[in-house]
Design goal:
about 280 residues; single chain; mainly alpha; about 75% helix; 2 domains; 13 helices; MetI-like fold
Length: about 280
Amino acid sequence: MRKNIKKSILLNIIAILICGVFLFPLYWLIVTSMKFEVDIFKSPPSLFPERFYFDSYIDQFKNTEYSIFQAFGNSTIISVLTMVLATILAIPAAYGLARFKFRGKKFIILSFLVTQMLPATLLLTPLFIIFKKLNILNTFISPILSDATMGIPFSVLILRTYFLSIPKELEDSAKIDGCGYFTAFIKIMIPISYPGVIVSCVFSFLFAWGDLAYSLTFINKQQMRPITAGIYNFLGYHGTSWNNLMAFGFVSILPVVLIFIFMQKYIISGLTSGSVKG
């Protein structure tokens, strides 16, 4: 009994230390954003602001050269539409890979795994050529389609394990009651696999929200670029004004933090519940 208690305490301490290491950059970003410029470069650096400076946050909404509200709107449009497109395409693809047998099935699954290892920069040139011929550069369509190339493979791999874990007898029972493949898929398979669907939606949204390479490459108009591209431009506007940069960075990641806070239950269950079968 004592060994179990000691083991539990040790594991909790290790978990806290690991959590502290991963969260320290976020803490340092927030602390730096609330410091005066002269306090940022003090040696040794202080782990807590000696004087609080909130003008760095106020300046984000007063800046006339760059509209943070417009950037938020652009990111929201791109991220939401990417999420919808990736989820709509990934659900039937994952279901087909889980339920049907056909030639080349293993190769297709392997190709989805390989795409997860490819860097985004590798796809920039071919996507740019394709989008230029389709005349969709400098539109929201180009980053939405390119961001979906990251979200769809991940969503397919996550949802496929969910569909594999669902007993096939449920579909057979639905067919006996008069349901076809499509009706059983809509009324039974999707509702049961909702944790996986939520995870797919969340990560597809986050892939698009954090994208910088595609947005800078395919969109040249400043007023159409998302908030991640705004961070890049803010560096040019403020130079070494690190408190303003850190404040802008924190404001830009705030939706991501809120998503993980309020959706953590679904994210954890979605990543673990469907991982029994592969």
